[in-house]
Amino acid sequence: MTGQNYQRRFHSPEFKVKVVLESIQRDTTIEAVCRRYNIGRSVIGRWREEFKKRSPNIFLDKRNPKKKSVSQGFKPGESPDELKKIIADLTVEKEVLKKVQGLFG
Predict the structure, then answer these.
(1) Which of 14, 62, 79, 80 has its CA 20 to 30 A from that of 87?
(2) Is it true that domain 1-59 has CATH number 3.40.1000?
(3) pTM score over 0.70
(4) What residue segments make up the domains of the chain, in order of their start?
């Protein structure tokens, strides 16, 4: 196959999940899935690795915003909830400083 005749195929996320889930079933082999969907073994391997890496995020505890913010890549002190708290603290500090300035000025 030459580079000029090859056209890259697009697969939807739903299709990729279907292929990955089928490839991890006990009653089938990766080779059988490759033949069934006409996809290379290395492609399925990449999709499986990405699936393994990203799938834990599906079941994050949505009740705990700190865990959620860390899992989304926020550093400590950067999550939206933490930033709102920092803004509130700074607003209070600003008001206190204005009052103190009024007493001395």
Answers:
(1) 62
(2) no
(3) no
(4) 1-59, 64-105
